[in-house]
Amino acid sequence: MAGQPDLDKQSQPAPLTRREAMLQLLRVGGVAAGAGAAGVWLSRHSLRPVPSLAEQARRDHRTSANPQFPHLTVVQGGEPRALVQRALADLGGMQRFISRQDVVVIKPNIAWDRTPEQAANTNPEVVAEVVRQCWQAGAKRVIVTDVSCNEPRRCFQRSGIQAAAHAEGAEVILPDPELYREVDLGGVVLKSWPVFTPFLEADKIINLPIAKHHSLVGVTLGMKNWYGILGGQRNRLHQQIHQSLADLANFMLPTVTLLDGYRILIRNGPTGGSLEDVVLKKTMVAGTDPVALDAYVAKAWWDLDPEHLPYLHMAAARGLGTVEYDKLPVKFSQLG
Amino acid sequence: MPHSRLPLLRRISQIFFLLLFLALLIFTSLRPVPGATSDIHLRAPVRLFFLLDPLVALVNALASHALYRGLLLSLVILIPTLFLGRFFCGWICPLGTLQHFVANMPSESKRGKQRIDANRYKRWQTGKYVVLIAGLVAACFGSAAIGWLDPFSLLVRSFGLSLLPAFNAAARAVLLPLEHSPIAFIKNSGEILHSILLFFVLDFRQPHFSQGLILGVLFIAILAASLRVTRLWCRGLCPLGALLGAVSRWSVLGLHKDPAACDKCNRCLLSCQGGDDPIGGFPWRKSECLMCMNCVGSCPHSSLQFRFFRNEKEVASPDLGRRRTITGLAAGAAIVPLMRANTGLGKSRHERLIRPPGSLDEEDFLSRCIRCGECMKVCPNTAIHPTLDQAGLEGLWTPTLIPRIGYCEPSCVLCSDVCPTGAIWQITPREKGWVVGIGTTEGRSVATSQPIRLGTAFYDRGRCLPWAMATECIVCEEWCPVSPKAIYVQEAQVIDSAGNTKTLKQPRVDPSRCVGCGACEYACPLQEHPAVYVTSIGESRSPASQILLNRK
């Protein structure tokens, strides 16, 4: 340093004053005491990290049965919006399910990077109409979300659901990797799993699946749609798929289910891709009994008995509904 | 206009182009926009700086005997340089701007006399011409490897694959505790900050790139070198600077020195960027000058001015000399044949070298790929990574898919949209052909020609759950995006450890249908070493790498 005097030529330095020495001691002593205290405090808090206990979080949004209305309704022969309107009207109108000031989360299937014509995701017009009716019923917030399999930004855009839901004023939430909460699903095989937070914070949940072929199960209908609330390593669920489906259905009980059968994928599901795999069915099946709904569609469209779909019996055994849909009041309507 | 205002104008231009570069780089990504369901393309012209780069155009022309789409635009830079000199380096180039900024920071080793001395012309500055000559000769031999040193390749690679992902990680590390704060005010401001950053800078998901660390460290080292020697990179290494310097020998704009007014105060040397001897008594070196105008602004006697059509003593061409020229020529001529005499390109290609969809056959690919990393930056699944040894030394930092990290999204063609040189030829989702009838509306699907294939999937039956462990799975089959699926299942009776007979579905691959997207490998529950994996055999770009005699 340029300004420093030459050390050799400096005279003998003056001894420290008592005051300076005391201050120096105080400073050093303070640092030593602080380090000691911090060390002791930290070492007392050294515990083996234990994963925080997942919250008990069964979500029961079921609507109580009303003898006035059927448990299941099948509407045929209309455009997507008309199908939704009729199905909801048959079930008693959206106001039966949604109350004023409700936070409604709508769960379509937005799993794949596919266009509506390819029928791998829920029809965007179906989503739009449900959003519109939620607002009409006085909802406070209407959220549309799903945890996609393919790249979510592409899925949300190319499914047409982002645009359609936005146009009706819904909040569209992409599955942000940071928005998950570890919860206890309380299942037989599904215990602690990360669940996408909007599904945990909803007042009402509307399930909007699409009916598709699926190699492992045979079909993917309403209950399989709950895969899309999970984060984490869900590719393990296939190992015990029926038990997993029953566990999920027992965790998430929707307010109402509207199954999109406008176009259905009959081969190469659940991804499809070719328009050859798609059948224009122009149908919607809606209801308050998720087990009966899946059982009906499996039998009516794929000729699969509940015996081929063990998850239906597992769900029925837990009191989530009945596989004997033919013993329920079911309404059939034909449009146009 | 008074000359002293020029440095200010230059600064404005530099900041503008730096911000433009960063903005375009950030927009080199799939951003959530509500819109139509049709094909997804980027709206911003994210390749702009590469299109303006005459080095990329020249190498592309030499190596491929054609100019890829848009590269003609580089004449916008090249032709003005013929008249005006290296204004691009001083006024536009973002890498130059960053070094300019770092060089201005106070540094122990760059004061007064040392600084003046450091800014005098040095013979090592001819190094960049040797690099350029070697690169151009290598291009004639069919390699675009000069992209390792092209300033925009360097910038996109370093920022896109290293610095921006690092910023992303840092921002999330700071934001996450804020957003989980029990204090409402901190929590809310954290959330607001997060959504603002998410809109402007942050990625939807934290990106990870192989070699990200080394790319970042190299870049920081290049910038840090400017603390010692101003713009060390621009003066001694940059092949684009060399090209522009060589071209500017005919320029009609030049530095006019008034010898009568100059009292050799050396002030012009204090902030000289190019090391081109603006001081009186020495000839001005045209090919080194970056036209930064600092000397004009700093001369107390106004004895320096840039003027058109001067007649003054100057050194117009680089003082390369015969020996250095020959060194460059020899290096360029030797390096490509040497690398190609090795195995790799000719024989025994790496099985995991999976090029993005639309890539040309390997030889054409290497003649075009400038290792810029645009394809890696834009990939929404961060599936594409720079190679280390998979493509041989020659292919260092060229793109390869790592399906374990990300698979190729069936209808996505963004990498082919952003490739500036046609190494990944621009394709449409229909040409990619993984989804039959894509883009058609309600009408019947139109059969396309053969799909683009990246490779073929294979099963490791020793690890696959239904094959080896009597456990149901076939997630791979669920994810397979082609129709009919390339993965088909067969029911089989297996015996589990308790001796029970179970019926379950075992997956197999039909190689005539598999496109090598890697979705199966990505989705396999055996993450660290998937039981189904893609290798490059069967890739449609390479006639020499096929399995089947006849494909359906």
Describe this entry's structure for a reader.
With 336 residues, chain A is α/β, with parallel strands linked by helices. Chain A has one domain: 3-Layer(aba) Sandwich (Rossmann fold), CATH 3.40.50. In chain A, 30% of the residues lie in helices and 22% in strands. Chain A contains nine helices and 15 strands. In chain A, strands 3, 4, 5, 6, 9, 10, 11, 13, 14 and 15 form a ten-stranded mixed β-sheet that branches. A three-stranded mixed β-sheet of chain A has the order 1-7-8. Chain A has a two-stranded parallel ribbon with strand order 2-12. In chain A, a hairpin with a 3-residue loop joins strand 10 and strand 11. In chain A, 50% of the residues are buried. With 552 residues, chain B is mainly alpha-helical. Chain B is built from 23 helices and ten strands. In chain B, a hairpin with a 5-residue loop joins strand 8 and strand 9. In chain B, helix 8 crosses helix 13. Chain B starts with 5 loop residues before the first helix and ends in a 17-residue tail after the last strand.
How far is the N terminus from the C terminus of chain A?
Answer: 94 Å
Task: Supply the number of structural domains of chain A.
Answer: 1
DSSP helical segment count of chain A: 9
Question: Can you say what the CATH homologous superfamily of chain A is?
Answer: LarA, N-terminal domain
The counted number of beta strands of chain B is 10
Shape of chain A: elongated
Q: Name the beta content range of chain B.
A: 5-15%
- Write down the overall mean pLDDT of chain A: 93
Greatest interface by residues involved = A-B, 46 and 51 residues
Helix content of chain B: 40-55%
- Relative helix content of chain A: 25-40%
Overall outline of chain B:
elongated
**Could you give the order of strands across the largest sheet of chain B?**
1-3
Please state the CA-atom Rg of chain A, rounded to the nearest Å: 29 Å
Strand content of the residues of chain A, in percent? 15-25%
Number of helices of chain B: 23
Main sheet specs of chain B: 2 strands, antiparallel
Largest sheet of chain A: 10 strands, mixed
Spans where pLDDT lies below 50 across 5 or more residues of chain B:
438-448
Number of strands of chain A: 15
Tell me the radius of gyration of chain B.
Answer: 28 Å
